[in-house]
C-alpha cells in the first residue's frame, strides 16, 4: 500500500491490478483506513486517467454482490449533491406512478451537502438498511425502493464515501464517478438520469468542471451500454426553500401536493420526465413531461410516496400532519439589514451552517439532528425591504449562541445584496445525452 500511495503521490498511473488490490484489501480490512485516506488525497491532488477511473469504478462495483433486473424500465436518478436537494422524494414516486421501476441506493450527507438517507430517516420507522432480497422484492412489487449503501452492494463505496466525507476529498471527478456509477451499476439500474449540480453549493463550482464530470459519468454508462442523460442544474442557492432533514421531507410532501416552490418542482418534473423517456414509457421528452405533470396533479405520485414509506416500515401520519416529524421547536427569524435585491448566496456555507446546528456530521460517528435547519423566505433576485424576513432558523433549546454565530456568519460570508435589479436565475442550464440514450 505504501508503494501505491507513493506512486500516486508522484503523479504516476496506477495499474488495473493495483487498483483492484487496493479495493479488495480495503473491504477485507487488510489495509488501514488511514492509508486509504492518504491514497484518496493523492488521487484528489493528481487525478486519474480514464483507464484508472474505469478500473476503480469496476473494482468498487464488484466489491460486493450485483443485482440485475429485466426490462428497460428500471431507471435510477442520482444527484452529485447539493443544498436543499430533496428531488429524489418527489421524482421517484412520480416516475413509479408512470410505470418506471426505481431502485434507489442513496447516500448520507457528504461534506457540506445533505444526504437522502439522513433525510428519509427523519420519518419514524423508515428502514434504509434492507437486505438484497427485500430490495429486489419491493422493487418488483411497488416499482420503487430506497436504501442506503450496504455491506452487500458496492461495500467499497460505503467505506470510501464515509472517509471522503471527513477528509476534504470529495470534489474529485474520478472519485465521484466511481462512487456514483459503482452503486448505480451494482443496484441493477438499466438506465441512469444524472443531476449534476453546478455552483457554490455543489462540488463542481463551474460549468466546465460539471461538464467534465458529466462526460466521465456518461462515458461509464456508455461503456456498460446503459442509456443515460445528465442535467446540469443550478446550485447557487438552496433548491426549494428548506434546508435540513425533516424540513426537507415536509417540503417534498408540499411539492407532491402541488404546493411546492417552483424550482424544486421544475427540476423534479424534468428529471422524472427523463426517467419516463429512458424507460421507454413515452417516446418523446415532451410526452414524458406531460405524463409526469399529470401524476403530480392527479395525486397518484403522492399516493406512491405514501406506499414507499409504508413498505419500508415508516409511519405515514406526517403526510397529513407535519407535527409528526421531529422538527425543532425554536425559531429565529433572520431579517434584512437594508433595502435592496438579493444578489447571491454562498451556498456551501449554508450547508456548513446547518451542520453547526447538528443537521450534518463533522466526524464519521456524529449523530444527525433531524429537526434543525433553515427555511428561506427570499431567494436570489427577490426584492427586500429592511426588516423583511430572509430565512428562519429552526434550533433546539440551548443553541442560542450557535444561532447568533449563524446569523453573523450569514451576513459576513453568505449573502450579497445589490442596489439594482438582479435577473432571475435559470434552474436547468444544459442537458447532455449519453451515446446510448
Ligand atoms: N454522490 C455520491 O454517491 N458519491 C459522490 O461521490 C458524490 C455524490
Helix-strand layout with pairing:
Blueprint: H1 2-9, H2 16-27, H3 33-46, H4 50-61, E1 75-79, H5 88-97, E2 102-106, H6 116-120, H7 132-142, E3 144-148, H8 155-165, H9 173-186, E4 191-198, H10 207-223, E5 228-234, E6 242-243, H11 245-256, H12 262-278, H13 285-297, H14 300-311, E7 330-335, E8 340-345, H15 347-356, E9 373-376, E10 383-384, E11 389-395, H16 400-414, E12 415-418, E13 428-433
Parallel strand pairs: 1-4, 2-3, 4-5
Antiparallel strand pairs: 5-13, 6-9, 7-11, 8-10, 8-12, 9-11
Helix pairs in contact: 1-3, 2-4, 4-9, 5-12, 5-14, 9-10, 12-13, 15-16
The protein binds uracil.
Uracil (URA) binds next to helix 9.
Number of helices: 16
N-to-C CA distance: 39 Å
% residues in beta strands: 15-25%
Molecular shape: globular
Record field, number of beta strands: 13
Describe the structure.
- The chain is α/β, with parallel strands linked by helices and 437 residues long.
- It has 3 domains: 46 residues, Transferase, Pyrimidine Nucleoside Phosphorylase, Chain A, domain 3 (Up-down Bundle); 254 residues, Nucleoside phosphorylase/phosphoribosyltransferase catalytic domain (Pyrimidine Nucleoside Phosphorylase, Chain A, domain 2), CATH 3.40.1030; 93 residues, Aldehyde Oxidoreductase, domain 3, CATH 3.90.1170.
- Strand 4, helix 10 and strand 5 form a beta-alpha-beta unit.
- Helix 5 packs across helix 14, helix 9 packs parallel to helix 10 and helix 12 packs across helix 13.
- The two termini are 39 Å apart.
- The model has no long low-confidence stretch (mean pLDDT 96).
- Bound molecules: uracil.
